Amino acid sequence: MDPGYSGNSDSRDQAGFTGASVMVLTKNASVKDRSKVKIFVGNLSFSVDDQALSGLFEQHGGVDSATVVVDRDTGRSRGFGFVEMADEDARKAIDAMNGVEVEGRALTVNEARPKKRDGGGGGGGGRGGGGNKRW
Known about the structure:
alpha+beta, 15% helix, four-stranded antiparallel sheet, 8 strands, Alpha-Beta Plaits, elongated
């Protein structure tokens, strides 16, 4: 493929032959697979791992990935995770699994929202007040 093409659809291929429509993209072009949905699963029992999470959702369709978020210091589950499924299966799974009790906990299941970028944590302040201290 010629990197000079920018994503135009044409009925001729690179050699000039007519035929099926061809989509040519630049090296830096990104095509997001819009048919996949990332699902947020909250209020998980701390004993649920990636495999168990995947198993909960497999009954509603093909699971592309299932990840329980763990604390980086302790390695313990943080009580939520994400499942990625095909669009149609994901919608069915969300409707079927939201509110379902697993190990005594009612799951919160909805489409994941993009992570907020707030600009990071707070910074330290100045020295603060401090009476008659001499430095």
